[in-house]
Amino acid sequence: MAPAAPMGRGGSRAAPAAAAPPWHVLPDEVWEHAFSFLPADSDRGAAAAACRSWLRAERRSRRRLAVANCYAASPQDAVDRFPAVRAVEVKGKPHFADFGLVPPAWGAAAAPWVAAAADGWPLLEEISFKRMVVTDDCLEMIAASFRNFQVLRLVSCEGFSTAGLAAIAAGCRNLRELDLQENEIEDCSIHWLSLFPESFTSLVTLNFSCLEGDVNITVLERLVTRCHNLKTLKLNNAIPLDKLANLLRKAPQIVELGTGRFSADYHPDLFSKLEAAFAGCKSLRRLSGAWDAVPEYLPAFYCVCDGLTSLNLSYTTVRGPELIKFISRCKKLQLLWVMDLIEDRGLAVVASSCNKLQELRVFPSAPFDAAEQVSLTERGLVDVSASCPMLESVLYFCRRMTNEALITIAKNRPNFTCFRLCIIEPHTPDYTTHQPLDAGFSAIVESCKGLRRLSVSGLLTDIVFKSIGAHADRLEMLSIAFAGNSDLGLHYILSGCKSLKKLEIRDCPFGDKPLLANAAKLETMRSLWMSTCSLTLGACRQLARKMPRLSVEVMNDPRRRCPLDSLTDESPVETLYVYRTIAGPRFDTPACVQIV
Amino acid sequence: MLVETERSSTESSAASGLDFEDTALTLTLRLPGSAPAPPAVASLSSSSSSAFPDADRKCASSDADPDRSSLLAASSDAAPAPKARVVGWPPVRSYRKNALAGVAGSSKANQAAKFVKVAVDGAPYLRKVDLQAYAGYDQLLRALQDKFFSHFTIRKFADDERKLVDAVNGTEYVPTYEDKDGDWMLVGDVPWK
């Protein structure tokens, strides 16, 4: 008979063997396989929206899930929709929590996520939490619930102790990665490292650099010795220099090393020992740590400089010539994080030596001390952006800037994807012309068409926001502080910036009008943070009424006791945090946070 | 749509998020969210040390260490006085802040270590100690003991004074140093700083 009809009927009569079924009746497994080639979650999401059968195939085959806001959906929503997830990443508190602007006990508890995962994803292998409150109970539940658990990554989290780590060590037989980045971990003096069984050899990544307390070095040595696949080892401050040398000899295959406290009085014997140990690490590509690095020991690293692609010396207080000499030998560097102690002359050397540089971050050594002046100015950034053609990501703390420098930088490097400039003193103008830095930042957004992340600083008027709104089409995250002069500034941003996902604002004179006028925009974004602006409670209430799919959180000074309900519409709002959600209002807010 | 160009009303300082009780004395120049300061703001801030000595004293007690207060009386091109801190600015992660504080120690200065040579009579080679690493003479003594442990130990005398004593025959060692005038001085007379 005729081949199967285009209507997709299964057909009771078999088509001739040569005719293939039409594409839209292909079985789910074929679609799942096709979707596995889609690079981004957003692509998968788009595919899932095409039709019901694609939705079914996509969600049932999704293996990796990233929840960028833990309150955007409930854990149960996530488990129900994507039952086959093997790796989940959840982010909690807003970015400004890093700088102390979010009240304590705000929320972002990991427990509901762990509980839902334990129930719905027994085959879960990877968990990443960022800016969340993770308790020891969570860690114990993780260790007990997932028989093939392999990767635990905790970034900027708090709420747990070494007791929780002990549960992970003891319970996760197949653990490959334990990656603890910048967490606050309570030290219960439990020797958690000892709880990895002698038969345990699967570790590939071990990062405990943020742990304050001591570790048993003998146990660590044995662990490192038997884990032959160990590629990443990041130590904490408790490991003395001579023990570092021993560890390196036991793990010469290491690719990434965090040295911890790289400091001791100079000893020629120890120097030779270290030098020899590093010479054996032929695969070492990424280096970090060196917190109290004594300059005399830096040459011990020289033999690995040739191969280094990533160097994080942002906690190293070594200055001047030794630092520059060291970095200039690292000709293959792609990532460099340093303190401003490198100064302009150091960056000039970086510019000429490290042509493959892609990411540069320069951190302030004395951010709160205006008296401690370091000679790091706009000059350094201009030099690097002129000579490093692959530079695309910058974080730069400095004390002065000019429009001319920014314009030059913009012309030299139209390929920036991330540009974050922090001029330390608020409202600082161009120091040569005393003009606002509007022209400079405008040049950046006009030239860098692929810019995805931008942080502005210095003296800025509404004009710069007009440029940003009009030109920054790919911008996804924008951070603004002490800038603008009227509601227009915020209006330009919210009515422009087509791709904006996250907007965080502090200490700007932006009020109710642009917020309400652009309410619909907020639903296309992940979140909006506004603190110390000119908002009133009435506008927030109005916004919440108008946009039921947004959660409008108002936070006031925790020391102020009166409940929000009793306040009038005219009351000023200290902090507003708005985010889209399908989960409705959350119930775990502390007293100073209220959902209006 | 919006056509207004006037500045919107600014926050009162009570709701500004600053976490200290100082009055508007110093804050009028730097109230967050206020209209941008006139172009002369850069020079105004640097002269604030002389214009507002009271607030500077309050600031000094809250964050800067006492050493810095001597800078406040300096000449016009002196560094600006330690400003009252705005919460969460500059945007440095608390993890990094704590790490910086730990590394820099109480002096908040990022100086290179102050290494000095130490020679002991009868020892085959000299050692170097970092004076920055110790908070007082006691710690220095203990460090010297660690380095030259084969030579002497610290014995506590009846009047609570600690002295370096030879481990073998009990004779006392006296730490001395050569100052910039070339004179040999007994360690311990001058205040540690």
From TrEMBL, chain A:
Record-linked Gene3D superfamilies:
1.20.1280.50, Ribonuclease Inhibitor
Q: Which terms are listed as keywords in the entry?
A: Auxin signaling pathway, Nucleus, Ubl conjugation pathway
Q: Which SUPFAM superfamilies match?
A: F-box domain (SSF81383), RNI-like (SSF52047)
InterPro entries from the UniProt entry: COI1_F-box, F-box-like_dom_sf, Leu-rich_rpt, Leu-rich_rpt_Cys-con_subtyp, LRR_dom_sf, Transp_inhibit
GO terms (BP aspect): auxin-activated signaling pathway; SCF-dependent proteasomal ubiquitin-dependent protein catabolic process
The subcellular location is:
Nucleus
One protein family per Pfam: F-box_5
- Listed pathway(s): Protein modification; protein ubiquitination
Q: Which residues form a coiled coil?
A: none
* Superkingdom, natural source: Eukaryota
Positions of the COI1 F-box domain: 26-63
Species: Miscanthus lutarioriparius
Its Gene Ontology cellular component terms are: nucleus; SCF ubiquitin ligase complex
Whom does it interact with, and what assembly results? Answer: Part of a SCF (SKP1-cullin-F-box) protein ligase complex. May interact with auxin and auxin-responsive proteins.
Provide the Transport inhibitor response domain boundaries. Answer: 83-129
Q: What is this protein called?
A: Transport inhibitor response 1-like protein
UniProtKB/TrEMBL annotation, chain B:
Q: Origin, by domain of life?
A: Eukaryota
Under the heading InterPro entries, the entry gives: AUX/IAA_dom, AUX_IAA, PB1-like
- How is this protein named in the record? Auxin-responsive protein
Keyword Nucleus found: yes
Give any Pfam family that matches: AUX_IAA
UniProt lists compositionally biased (Low complexity) regions at: 40-53
A single GO CC term for this protein reads:
nucleus
Family under the similarity heading = Belongs to the Aux/IAA family.
The Basic and acidic residues compositionally biased stretches are 54-68
Where in or outside the cell? Nucleus
Ribosomal protein found in the keyword field: no
Q: How does it assemble?
A: Homodimers and heterodimers.
Native species of this protein?
Miscanthus lutarioriparius
Keyword terms, alphabetized: Auxin signaling pathway, Nucleus, Repressor, Transcription, Transcription regulation
> Annotated region Disordered: where?
31-76
| Any one GO biological process | auxin-activated signaling pathway
Q: What does this protein do?
A: Aux/IAA proteins are short-lived transcriptional factors that function as repressors of early auxin response genes at low auxin concentrations.
Domain named PB1: residues = 113-193
